[in-house]
Amino acid sequence: MSGFDFGVAAGPGSPREIAPQVTWLPHFVATAPLRDAIDRIAAAAPFRHLVVPRGGRMSVAMTNCGTWGWHSDRRGYRYVDVDPETGRPWPAIPPAFLDLAARAAAAGGFPGYVPDACLVNRYAIGAQMGAHRDYDELDMSQPIVSVSIGLPATFLWYGARRTDPPVSVLLEDGDVLVWGGSARAGYHAVRKLKAPRGMAPVTGDAPLRYNLTFRRAR
Ligand code: MD3
Ligand code: FE
Asked: From ligand 2's centre to the CA of 202, what distance in Å?
């Protein structure tokens, strides 16, 4: 099935190139402040399940912050500067997010990163993202920075062909991935989110995973 497995967590502060120009930064950031910021974003631009052009509803709920927000409906995929749900511009990217994205991009070999879009994905138990490529952005030389928050999920990296055996990475709370260059147009997917087991829900936290995906859309 998988070409390689990186299921065992590396220690914090040990960047690892899991494929050419795909850098994994395990436990790069403390996520409690990020969760609070996500709650504020969602208060202004609620999470919603977008419809894909063929009519299906995505299992992942999404919202955005930034000048541009990713949107999908029957007409296609695109970036929009007004939230079609609220009729208002998307909330601004919080300064702490911009700082995090720039520090992570630099650690992955892309200094001077200034994203103008941040897609916020929310996975409940059972949600998944099928194999796809992201190419709605104008300048594909700009990297993407992804920040995982909450429950762990298995991320699959296929690379140039979706039929190749994927590299599998268990993304945990605080992990960051940076993609650029040759990896920017690669196929990737997220496996169906599993319910946590073996521990009582003492924290009162909802069983969710969030992913911040920073992009340069324009
Ligand atoms: C590699 N999100 O929103 S983030 C997405 O965990 C998406 O929610 C996943 O794929 C998630 O499009 C994975 C990592 C990611 C995002 C965009 C990429 C990896 C990428 C674009 C090109 C190459
Ligand atoms: Fe993607």
From this structure: 32
Q: Is 64 in the pocket of ligand 1 (CB under 6 A)?
A: no
Please tell me the CATH code under which domain 4-215 is placed: 2.60.120.590
Classify each residue of 15-26 as buried b or exposed e, where b means 16 or more C-beta atoms within 10 Å of its C-beta: beebbebbbbbb
Beta strand residue intervals within the chain, DSSP E: 4-6, 16-19, 22-25, 61-66, 69-73, 76-80, 117-124, 129-132, 144-150, 153-159, 167-171, 176-179, 187-190, 208-215
Whether 108 is in the pocket of ligand 1, judged by its Cβ within 6 Å, is: no
Ligand 1 centre and the CA of 129: distance in Å?
Answer: 9
Centroid of ligand 2 to alpha carbon of 132 (angstroms)? 6
Ligand at minimal distance from the CA of 140 is 1
- The tens-digit pLDDT sequence of the chain (218 residues) is 445 555 444 446 689 999 999 999 999 999 999 999 999 999 999 999 999 999 999 999 999 999 999 999 999 999 999 999 999 999 999 999 999 999 999 999 999 999 999 999 999 999 999 999 999 999 999 999 999 999 999 999 999 999 999 999 999 999 999 999 999 999 999 999 999 986 655 556 799 999 999 999 99
For a substitution probing ligand 1, which of 139, 144, 172 has the most ligand atoms within 8 Å of its CB? 144
